[in-house]
Amino acid sequence: MEFIDVCSLEDIPPGKSRPVRAADKDVALFNVGGVVHAIENSCPHQGAALSGGEFCGRVVKCRAHGWRLDVTTGTLVVTDKLRVPCYPVEVADGRVAVALNA
After folding, report:
1. Taking the model in full, what pTM does it have?
2. Where does residue 63 fall: left (phi above 0), alpha (psi -120 to 50 degrees), or beta otherwise?
3. DSSP readout, 3-48?
4. CA-CA distances (angstroms) from residue 51 to 10, 24, 39, 79, 92?
5. Is residue 38 within 8 Å of residue 87, measured between CB atoms?
6. Which sign, positive or negative, has the C-alpha torsion 3, 32, 55, 73?
7. Exposure of 18 by Cβ count < 10 A (0-12 exposed, 13-18 middle, 19+ buried)?
8. Is-contact 49 63, C-beta < 8 A?
9. Which domains does the chain have, with CATH numbers?
């Protein structure tokens, strides 16, 4: 598994999100209680960016139409039949890296 360095851990304080570009993918990073999670930065409904949505606990709300997704699993809160891809995250020496080919 190849990890791609995307940002500093300081760039994503607990309870915050950050959009990053890793290789050719738009990824949304979310810090849930000190643990960073990475999902595709595109709502499954109509592709709106998730990284700027309202974020509380482990749920992000899409700014476009209000769809809510669990950032730890990538699944829509109301059903597990819709999801966005999740990516493994590695934090080392204050840097965040994401694996896209997992």
Report:
1. 0.93
2. alpha
3. EEEEEEGGGS-TT-EEEEEETTEEEEEEEETTEEEEEESS-TTT--
4. 16, 17, 9, 21, 22
5. yes
6. positive
7. buried
8. yes
9. 3-99 (2.102.10.10)
The pLDDT profile of the chain, 102 residues, written as one tens digit per residue, is: 899 999 999 999 999 999 999 999 999 999 999 999 999 999 888 878 999 899 999 999 998 889 999 999 999 998 878 899 999 999 999 999 999 975
Summary count for the chain: helices (H), strands (E):
0, 10
Evaluate whether 74 touches 86 at the Cβ level (below 8 Å): yes
Count Cβ atoms below 10 Å from residue 78 Cβ, excluding itself: 10
Between CA 83 and CA 65 the distance in angstroms is 16
* Nearest by Cα to 57 from 42, 72, 47, 43: 72
